[in-house]
Amino acid sequence: MCGIVGYVGSLRADDVVLEGLRRLEYRGYDSAGIAVVTEGTVASAKRAGKLVQLETALSESALPASGTGIGHTRWATHGAPNDRNAHPHLTRAQSIAVVHNGIIENFARLRAELEDADYEFQSETDTEVVAHLLDSVYDPATGLAEAMRVVCRRLDGAFTLVAIHADEPGVVVGARRNSPLVVGRGDNENFLGSDVSAFIGYTRKAIELGQDQVVELRTDSITVTNFDGTPAQITEYEVTWDAEAAEKGGYDYFMLKEIAEQPQAVADTLLGRINDDGLLVLDEMRLSDDDLRSVDKIVLIACGTAYHAGMIAKYAIEHWTRIPCEIELASEFRYRDPILTRDTLVIAISQSGETMDTLMALRHAREQGARVLAVCNVNGSTIPRESDAVVYTHAGPEIAVASTKAFLTQVVAVHLVALYLAQVRGTKWGEEIRHHVEQLAQMPSKIEELLTTMEPVREMAASMADAQTVLFIGRHVGYPVALEGALKVKELAYMHAEGFAAGELKHGPIALLEEGMPVVAIVPSPRGRSILHDKVISNIQEVRARGARMIVIAEEGDTDVEPYADVLIRIPAVPTLMQPILAVVPLQVFACALATAKGFDVDQPRNLAKSVTVE
Ligand code: M6R
């Protein structure tokens, strides 16, 4: 939610900031703006709409050259997405400009106080209070960083703030609480970004700001303090991917690139996790074997696509470890007073590591004494930092708003966690674990093979641009796949789509069916769990008998499904628990092609943002 960039150095700040905003636009695209310090004032430009609107405005009227600048790309919370509410927000004298990500919960009271002191507001945003508050406390003797510390101590809620002052050329100040902000250390230049992609074209040296910290950037120094002014410890790390990984690389959309990257992403998730004996090693598992042996309940928390990965985790963990496992939407978790003890292991799944609902749920779990294991993609982000242990998915940057490779790698990572628990607790023999791990190791080549067969799926999607509704059904781990397929269609093609447990259809939703309505069924393997397979075939028959158009996803060699499929999509045969890793791929391709056929921007679907950093 909202992308923030800051730069100080010898290059033109507006160019560097604009480039950073291009890379961060996936975080929000309601408006964009830039401000730079120049000759005793702050110059700015901002426009509602996607970044291209700002680029057009800047090409008509450029900002003055400056080496100090900030920028913002917005996902609107307070105030409509128009020019007035676009960031940066400036003081009336144009001495201070500020950009913000998050929500300042006490802004109404602060605004009333500032209005009483004759400050005039130009926007409806919560952010503007920060510009005026900075102005009200600014003292040239102590500077902008101290003003920021004073202001932050008065704010409630979640915020990343970045500001510049007309009297301090060569200084950019940032602050964070509950929202992300990363520093990039360059050579005689320094950067700020909501994530490292903002400056990855310039440096791979990064410093994650901690909770309640303020950073002052100059060309040759980075000074981090806590909100109370005490010096803060900083840990620098090297980003493991480069600028190319954050580019489209010849694809029309990031989503297409990320779908194609899935074999490699899954291989990277598995890399280094299997020792010479074929057993699992999870390096970042900071919980001891004794801790893991004492776990008597597991609770999975996540949102959206990550929640669907969590649903699959429940099946795998319970099957392999026999530990009772619950899965809950992170946004609901803490409000029902969940029963948590020291022996509860909470697994928080999040691609970004910044999702506020998940972060708040994990904090609640830790406050109640439970231990938290994060399954996360973004190195050093808040959720793994605040957890007791982490298993990184190593999927590389995921930029498209719709999650694809993050989902597959989350499913693989939770399988690893489940098998690791089984290994430590002895609920599976070493031989069995080796066997499952070997099957996971075959996934990259199977996904690769599957991706070469997707043309008919694209054609089918293109022919369905006028459909009103698509339903998805599945049982067991096919149920979360059905939910994920429906979510992709909703978020990308803006169509009514719903996923159902196949057996639940007859309890109500079957009334939705109309002649020709497309229904996608995910059919489990006929091998091993054949009752499950047969039950889904029965459900398909029930649906087909009511005139629906059946699109069936079934494994190679499953001939039983052939009489009931209007369209048959084949996936390689794998064990049932691992089937979601393949079955979801045609659904991603389908939703992407459907949205493209309808003329929508699949990377930046309306009303959405990649990282949801508000509750
Ligand atoms: O970064 P996270 O994995 O915590 O994000 C959770 C959801 O916001 C995310 O999966 C969302 O549902 C995706 N846009 C779905 O494609």
Which class do the helix and strand fractions yield? alpha/beta
User: Mind summarizing the main beta sheet?
Assistant: 8 strands, antiparallel
From the N-terminal CA to the C-terminal CA, the straight-line distance is 11 Å
> How do the strands line up in the largest sheet?
3-2-4-1-10-9-11-14
- pLDDT averaged over residues: 94
CATH superfamily of the largest domain: Aminohydrolase, N-terminal nucleophile (Ntn) domain
The CATH topology of the largest domain turns out to be Glutamine Phosphoribosylpyrophosphate, subunit 1, domain 1
Question: Could you tell me the radius of gyration in angstroms?
Answer: 25 Å
Number of strands: 24
Discrete helix count: 19
| Rough outline | globular
Estimate what percentage of residues fall within beta strands: 15-25%
Estimate the helix proportion, in percent.
25-40%
The kinds of small molecule bound in this structure are:
5-amino-5-deoxy-1-O-phosphono-D-mannitol
- Poorly predicted ranges: none
Question: How is this structure best described in words?
Answer:
This protein is of the alpha/beta class and 615 residues long. The protein folds into 3 domains: 244 residues, Glutamine Phosphoribosylpyrophosphate, subunit 1, domain 1; 197 residues, Rossmann fold (3-Layer(aba) Sandwich); 145 residues, 3-Layer(aba) Sandwich (Rossmann fold). The chain is 34% helix and 23% strand. It contains 19 helices and 24 strands. Strands 3-2-4-1-10-9-11-14 form an 8-stranded antiparallel β-sheet, covered by helices on one side. The protein has a 6-stranded antiparallel β-sheet with strand order 5-6-7-8-12-13. A 5-stranded parallel β-sheet has the order 16-15-17-18-19, with helices on both faces. Strand 20, helix 17 and strand 21 form a beta-alpha-beta unit. Helix 7 runs parallel beside helix 13 and helix 9 packs antiparallel against helix 17. The longest helix is centred in the C-terminal third of the chain and has 21 residues. The site of 5-amino-5-deoxy-1-O-phosphono-D-mannitol has 16 residues, from helix 9 and helix 17.
